Amino acid sequence: MPTISVIVPVYNVEKYLSKCLNSIIAQTFSDIEIICVNDGSTDNSRKILEQYKNRDSRIKIVDKKNGGLSSARNAGMAIATGEFYSFIDSDDWVEPTMLEKLYKNITALNTDISICGVNLVYETKDKQIDDEKYFNLEYFDKSFDGKVFSYKDVKPFLMNVGVMAWNKLYRRKLIDECNARFPEGLIFEDGPFFFSIFFKTKRVSLVRELLYFYRINRPSSILQKCGEQFENIIDVVNLMFNSLKESDIFDEVKYDFFFHKAEDIIYRYSLIPKKFKNRYRQKFRQTSCLLNKKYFDFVYISDKMKIKYKRLCNVGGIVNIIDFYYYKFIVELMYKIMQILYTEDNIYYFKCYFIKLRLKKRPNICNVWYENDIIYCILFNNIKFHFNFEYSKLEQLKYEKSDYISNSTRL
Predict the structure, then answer these.
(1) In this structure, are residues 158 and 255 in contact, taking their beta carbons and an 8 Å threshold?
(2) Number of H helices, E strands in the chain
(3) What is the CATH number of domain 4-224?
(4) More exposed terminus of the chain, fewer Cβ within 10 Å: N or C?
(5) Under a CB-based contact definition with an 8 Å cutoff, are residues 93 and 14 in contact?
(6) Could you tell me which residues come within 8 angstroms of residue 186 by beta carbon, excluding any fewer than 6 positions away?
(7) The dihedral of CA 153, 159, 165, 167: what is its sign?
(8) What are residue 84's DSSP bridge partners?
(9) What is the pLDDT of residue 370?
(10) Of 122, 86, 83, whose CA–CA distance to 101 is shortest?
């Protein structure tokens, strides 16, 4: 039996699949099986899989009707025989040493989960971002290097521990004991899977290297389509809440969970088309764990949110979702602007590296606002500049104007 089962869900990724498979075949740790789950692809992905299978006997192909990413991963686990699991998405790729380094780390420290850092790669520019703390493990200080830790050790930044499935090596025994599976029929599936096992083990470790390359802004990605499935975030948060609720740190971290996941829910709401918003709001009010008075003190929440969130909470719970979404939109808009300022080389009416550097490192030193397809910026020392900007640059971030914001609102 192979030591590691690499599970690769495949759906209409003919443009990216070869690069992904090449990076897996080239792994310096060779005792692997590569389980490619063809989730009902309608392009040439199946043909590409067959070509690679003929070249490498470690590749297995599982064909199934389209059921989504969770269904494909679960199908891969159902036939996997390895002692460890690795999940690699078919539009991404990995360093040739990733599995070897994760395996050495997980076996040397006898842990159940080993985590590595991630490079973000812009689909349109093929540029890499390596300074996102959520992905590069910067939230973990140096004391975590070469050490075994558990969820209790990361309480101060629990909600900033990456839940993504694909930058980790998992001990199969842990997954089997937890009967962990990805929730089928839902997107944003990684969080519930990770939470279901993270709170059941005391042995986690990390490799502080960026070994996984995650492609962002892929046009055909479901996360770029901003459709009705975005309401799945409400179900996913509920599933994560149930896992957290069973842990012995729930009371200590529940408000961190509340604030973080409330922002997730509102952010997704801001992206969906208007025709789905009413149903989203209704589902949120009827089913969200964040409205449970048994676990959350809304007077405390209202006080913590202060003016920026003053209309978010009242005795009946969260009733004015638009206020929260408006504030979240502003935060996300600022963040996206800073990304664009840093990654675009010719976006200014005039070029100034100092400004670009300062905006990247200290985005709080300036005021930014949007009006008539122009971004205006004023720095702390009254340096002013502006540049043309279209909403498409916001990675399909859509915003419907409300009574709370005008065309010339200052951020």
Answers:
(1) no
(2) 13, 14
(3) 3.90.550.10
(4) N
(5) no
(6) 68, 70, 192, 232, 235, 236
(7) negative
(8) 4, 171
(9) 53
(10) 86
pLDDT > 70? residue 302: no
| Residue 122 vs residue 144, higher pLDDT | 144
Q: Rounded mean pLDDT of 316-344?
A: 48
Cβ neighbours around 313 below 10 Å, total: 26
Q: How far from 257 is each of 157, 253, 324, 361, 409, CA to CA, in Å? A: 10, 6, 16, 27, 30
Where in the chain are the domains?
A: 4-224, 233-319, 334-394
What is d(CA 136, CA 119) in angstroms, rounded to the nearest whole number? Answer: 7
Q: Return the axis-axis angle of helices 321-343 and 250-271, rounded to nearest 10°.
A: 80
Residues facing 369 on adjacent strands: 376, 410
Residues 6+ apart with CB under 8 A from 110: 148, 203
Evaluate if residue 47 carries a pLDDT over 50. yes
In this structure, are strands 366-371 and 374-379 parallel, antiparallel, or unpaired?
Answer: antiparallel
Distance CA 292, CA 53 (A): 51
Confidence of residue 341 (pLDDT cuts 50, 70, 90): low
Q: Are 48 and 77 in contact (CB under 8 A)?
A: no
From CA 317, how far away is CA 307, in angstroms rounded? 17
Q: What is the DSSP string of 114-135?
A: EEEEEEEEETTT--EE---HHH
What DSSP state is assigned to residue 410?
Answer: B
pLDDT tens digits, 213-225: 999 866 555 554 5
Least confident of 39-48, 141-150, 189-198, 303-312: 303-312
Task: State the CB neighbour count (10 A cutoff) for residue 109.
Answer: 16
- pLDDT above 70 (res 187): yes
DSSP labels, 291-337: G-TTT--HHHHHHHHTGGGTTTEETTEE--HHHHHHHHHHHHHHHHH
